[in-house]
């Protein structure tokens, strides 16, 4: 919070990110509701849900493009204004009588905007690395994560309520999203001098030979960073295992609640909100309190504790008897996740060259996400064909195995320290 109050460049980036997040959170939930109103609604809702994964899968490409972009500050501003224009177009089209072809056009606009947003985030990462002192990276990124998650929770609920209050006036939400992107762009434009100082530091540190590298070379270099950094390589393998398990949790919880009323809080809807909110609150708290008793703990040690907490979640649902036990372990697991993500982002920022940060992060995100659909298919198929209990038993066993692997690697792998790149050069 100290850096947010005194660092104008960091404050500009986080404010612009939050405004963009407000628009996205409002519109994403509204777009799902809109999809349920068009012909072929089941297919439309499925496509709208799957489309949210596409920007993540393209993160390697958008990251490489962001690293190769010279004028990152002005490019970040232009991206926000392009997103604004896209949602003005969307607001016009969504007012036309609903049809499946119109829905597909709107879906494409949404995908393009989200992909541009991923590109914009890649542009901002090396700027943050220059704006924040090394000792403040963890807490600075933690604050961004906590604020982003809070915005998502609040404005998804606001969006679901407002669309009903406004009698499903979808064009209004398109315009609201356009305004949030426009204001985000104006904030960056107003504070561009502070951001250009950070960009100038990057220009000084980068060598001219990087300007002529192809995107393919950038991606190869990003992959090489993982192969040469033993910690990042091991952590990425763990992230793949964790996502294989964790991404399927939401669907498994929903199926379990359909079957076992003894873990309800009043009714089915309230129960889903309880478990979802527990996860989100845990991440917010973990991201905010970066300087707690786990400050000096190794990242792989925190990952081990997180997996043991997921073992507790699995046991809670397998027994399907104790709401308190389930919520407590969800809070613990998500609290630890809230600490891990900013740490790894900070390590990436300080362990690779300025012009490789976004591409390296993109590789990490792609590898971590690529196995998630396999986990969903496995656990949800078992839960649907047999019983959710069997899915949770398998989930618990695999979580315990991953915890053991993480613990072993935690003792064998040296975690690099977060240092300023200027210090490394000296």
From TrEMBL:
The alphabetical list of record keywords is: Cell membrane, Membrane, Transmembrane, Transmembrane helix
Q: How does it sit in the membrane?
A: Multi-pass membrane protein
Coarse class of the primary localization is membrane
Any Pfam family matching the protein: MFS_1
Where is the protein situated, by its record's location annotation? Cell membrane
Bilayer-crossing residues are 12-37, 43-65, 77-96, 102-128, 140-166, 172-191, 231-256, 268-288, 300-317, 323-341, 362-383, 389-409
This protein's GO CC annotations? plasma membrane
Q: Does the keyword field hold DNA repair? A: no
GO MF terms listed in the record are:
transmembrane transporter activity
Task: Extract the PANTHER family matched here.
Answer: INTEGRAL MEMBRANE EFFLUX PROTEIN-RELATED, MAJOR FACILITATOR SUPERFAMILY ASSOCIATED DOMAIN-CONTAINING PROTEIN
Q: What is this protein called?
A: Major facilitator superfamily permease
Q: Which organism is it from?
A: Lactobacillus gigeriorum DSM 23908 = CRBIP 24.85
